[in-house]
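Lab notes, practical 5.
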Amino acid sequence: MSVREPIIETVKIRELRPTQMTVGRREVEAKRAHWRQVKRPRQFLGKHLIPVVHGHKDRYYLIDHHHLARALHEEGVQAVAITVVANLSELEEQHFYTVLDHKGWLHPYDEKGRRRDYRDLPKSVDELKDDPYRSLAGELRHAGGFAKDTTPFSEFLWADFLRAHIKRSKIEKNFDDCLVQALKLAQSVHAGYLPGWCGPNTRS
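Output from the prediction step:
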């Protein structure tokens, strides 16, 4: 059911349906700051196509770039260019979400790391909730804690790993100290199962 040639359209950001439940607030803010520095907005948007699946009830479902879409929305951007990577619009609702899940295009986990029913997914990007562990995982990658990986939702896997080792209250009080701790954890053998792992650190 995948299309052979990319289909590019323009849609309103508010009409895009998320396939995840959370974002990292720090990453959203970083993308907002970057957008404000962009000299040629149209050229930027043309180079940053939002990948979607054409799905149930003829809606477009985001399968990547949730942080960018949320940031652009908060900056007042009304519409973005999308690229349709698959057309699953003929599937019934339950089957549609099952296919998304099996293809690694669905991550229905809330800000506490709990798996939820697909019916609990946000209806628009402005309903995505903040998960500080996702922010920490994003900063950890940027700091060289792990390599960028093609595994779907790889940074969420790292977020769940960090969730088991660092208290949320500590992240909210002193993010920088938690990043230092996260870097040490990322270099340990305990993180060896995670995508993009760059360890081990023999001193851990």
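Observations recorded by the TA: The first helix runs from residue 25 to 37. The chain has a mean pLDDT of 93.
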